[in-house]
From TrEMBL:
Cross-referenced Pfam families: HTH_3
Protein name as it appears in the record: Transcriptional regulator
Transmembrane segments: none
InterPro entries given in the database record: Cro/C1-type_HTH (IPR001387), Lambda_DNA-bd_dom_sf (IPR010982)
Domain HTH cro/C1-type, first and last residues per copy: 7-61
UniProt KW keywords: DNA-binding
């Protein structure tokens, strides 16, 4: 599964529309849609915002692990 599929699934799991999530991230909905479609790479800042919002790790969002547990702070 590509990472863009995972960010879509996470949004849907949190009962958010693309419009709502784009507003949270302070961006236009079409821009966020391009991330979910895999048409644009997600900037690091946005990826970190998503991980914080969903209380997970960036590795989980990037599909590098199947463990959604956020990392422990150092």
């Amino acid at each position: 599964m590509a990472y863009y599929r995972r960010i879509r699934d996470m949004r849907e799991d949190h009962d958010l529309t693309q419009r709502q999530l784009a507003a949270i991230l302070h961006m236009p909905q079409p821009q966020y849609n391009r991330y979910e479609q895999g048409l644009r790479d997600i900037p690091t800042v946005t990826l970190v915002q998503l991980a914080d919002l969903y209380k997970t790790s960036t590795d989980y969002l990037l599909n590098r692990t199947d463990d959604p547990t956020p990392p422990k702070a150092l």
